[in-house]
Amino acid sequence: MTSALPFDDFRNLLATLPPADTAAEARVRALFAKADKPKGSLGRIEDVAAWLAAWTGRAPPAVNRPLVAIFAGNHGVARHGISPRPVTATANAVELCAAGGAAVNQICISYDLGLKVFDLALHIPTADITEDAALDERGCAATMAFGMEAIAGGTDLLCLGDLGVGNSTVATALCAALFGGSSADWVGSGSGADASMRARKAEVVAAALAFHGTSLSDPLEALRRVGGREFAAIAGAILAARMQKVPVLLDGLVATAAAAVLQAANPAALDHCLLASLSPEPAHGRAAERLGLRPLLDLGVSHGEGAGAALAAGLVKAAALTSSGMAAVIKRLSPARSNGSGRQRR
Question: What is the pTM of this model?
Fold first, then answer.
């Protein structure tokens, strides 16, 4: 008899990821080539429109149901004083989002984006990663499955963000586990840590890496051991989006670290993802470079809560409209041009 382990379903999904629709991507690039403009003059807007087509199968693409999904978790490792904020700040931030008073709420209103905030058992922090695994395999797999439900109800652009006191420390531990290097190579200021707190963060990350040792060589094991609930949920959401052909915008170090788990398991796992913005956290730029992700925006936004992804969603919507609007005009004008007619002036 054989018994299935909780991670087996995710390993199977990662081994059978659907590919991009290269024909749809080519049609969008052909539309831009036919447009009455200098070649490549719209820069990355053309690339974004082609990416949307590739991962939605629509050419020209459209963004009709964009969603910002924010996952909030708390961490046992926060007891080591690695953040200038109290653990209760996570729940307070969730409540502020729910009340419509957070920065991301205003950005979502500006760009007509849907918003969901997921409270991942904030009253039960994960285990302290310096002395135990953050989650057991069953709990991590269940949280990944919960994250997959973020796209339930339908969306055509998923923007991922996070909330969690201490999660920049957890993200650096996960990055160090996946990419290598010492804790000092990855630790930064997070939400405002001073020099002594950064040193403490580096000590905590080093202790976690030493405690878990060679077990971190498996990406999903690294996720459950030195990650956290929001990391697992984001990884699940990214994977579900891939299976449903939904493009993804990643925001911040936490989402990037969660995404890195999937790429470590399958180098093609993030082809449907773009990096929304680059935070000032040094580890974020380093991780993005290792993943081959180039940010759409670089505004110095380190606010968290998906604000960078929401801002970038406005740009993505504009890219879709640019493509579809130009396509409509080209189609309308093509017969007139072929007949030698056109606009006349008096």
Answer: 0.92
